[in-house]
Amino acid sequence: MIASSSGRSNTQAINARATVKRIVIVSDGKPGHLNQSLGLAEALQRLLPEVEIETLPPFTRGVALKALLLGRSSAQIAKPDLLIGAGHATHLTLLALKRGWRVPAVVLMKPSLPLSLFDLCLIPEHDSPPSQGNVVATRGALNRMRPGEKTSDSGMILVGGPSKHSGWDETGLIRAIERIVSEDGRSWRATSSRRTPAETEAKLAQLSGLEFIPAAQTPSGWLPQQLAVTECCWVSADSVSMVYEALSAGCAVGVLPVPQLKQNRLQAGLQQLIDAKRVVALEQWRGEALQPDAEPLDEAGRCARELLARGLFGAQA
Asked: Crossing angle for the helix pair 222-229 and 240-248, nearest 10 degrees?
């Protein structure tokens, strides 16, 4: 009796394990790239009952090329059902593992290698993806943001900093934030980024009607949790990825201007959002309460559904 019962339990455990689908994310260690990959993987996890996610660092170039040529995976982990990667450093490893394990590989952003080598390429519209069967254009980069139950009259201001594409007008920015806090009488919080100059942080800390939390004082996961429950969010225009994350979190979104040193594809994508009235530029704002986008942005969910519809997840080559 006991042996028979144990046998049934073992069989049930094996069968249950067989239904589990595994995703391996090849991660170069950059938080932004991992955020994109996890956005897709977690969206698949929400659609399917049993999905495990594991991360793997990329091989060195020599190891990746050798594995690709030999057609054998040298990774010391169990074979997954799907590979996901973002960033140029992951591309050769994705292809080596795809060939060695004979499983589909999905690349996020425009790869440095021919698109035809990957099973699916999820490329932001601002990168002008070509029209071909294994390419899906996305509105911005994928992310992990999800809307939650919004706190009434809540507002967040996200301040970036100078970059290779953007200058910095601290006086104009502070004046704009003072206007927002004065004319839109909700409860306002603001946070900075690692690019925010210390002088700007000091001035933000002195503003009345605004609770300022420096980026250095925010724990891991703080901002996604805050955006999920925040109604309205203003983002400085240099932080384009945060505009898409705020939209994905279900926030009404406004854009604070910063000087542009040169035109680039990210700013062109931001202008498309403004032209489509998905976000509001400060110069368009007349003091009214911003309204959330009528069409919630869920690019990770849309891409996950597309991947399943193509039969890529769990399919064997």
From this structure: 50
pLDDT digits (tens, 9 = 90+) for 275-312: 999 999 999 999 999 999 877 799 999 999 999 999 99
Confidence label for 7 from pLDDT (cuts 50, 70 and 90)? very low
| Nearest CA-CA partner of 173 in 187, 160, 186 | 160
- Residues 213 and 258: their CA atoms lie apart, in Å, by 21
Q: Name the strands in the sheet holding 252-256, side by side, starting at the edge strand that comes first in the sequence.
A: 210-213, 187-191, 154-158, 232-236, 252-256, 280-281
> Where does residue 17 rank: exposed (0-12), middle (13-18), buried (19+ CB within 10 A)?
exposed
Q: How far apart are CA 301 and CA 195, in angstroms?
A: 30
Residue type, position 246, single letter: A
Q: Which amino acid is at 249?
A: A
Q: Residue 233 corresponds to which tokens in the numbers above?
A: 């969010």
Q: Say how far apart CA 190 and CA 227 lie, in whole Å.
A: 11
Residues ≥6 apart with Cβ < 8 Å to 25:
34, 37, 38, 41, 53, 54, 55, 56, 83, 84, 85
Contacts of 71 (CB under 8 A, 6+ apart): 99, 100
Report how far residue 107's alpha carbon sits from residue 258's, in angstroms, rounded to the nearest whole number.
Answer: 32
- Residue in 154, 135, 146, 150 with CA at minimum distance from that of residue 297: 146
Distance of CA 261 to the CA centre of its chain: 25
Which alpha helices (H) appear in the chain, and where do they start and end? 2-19, 31-47, 61-70, 91-101, 170-183, 198-206, 222-229, 240-248, 265-275, 299-309
Residue type, 116: S
Q: What is the CA radius of gyration of the chain?
A: 22
Instruction: Assign 120 to helix, strand or coil.
Output: strand
The string of pLDDT tens digits covering residues 62-106 is 888 887 888 777 667 889 999 999 999 999 999 999 999 999 999
Helix (H) or strand (E) holding 190: strand 187-191
Q: What is the pLDDT of residue 314?
A: 52
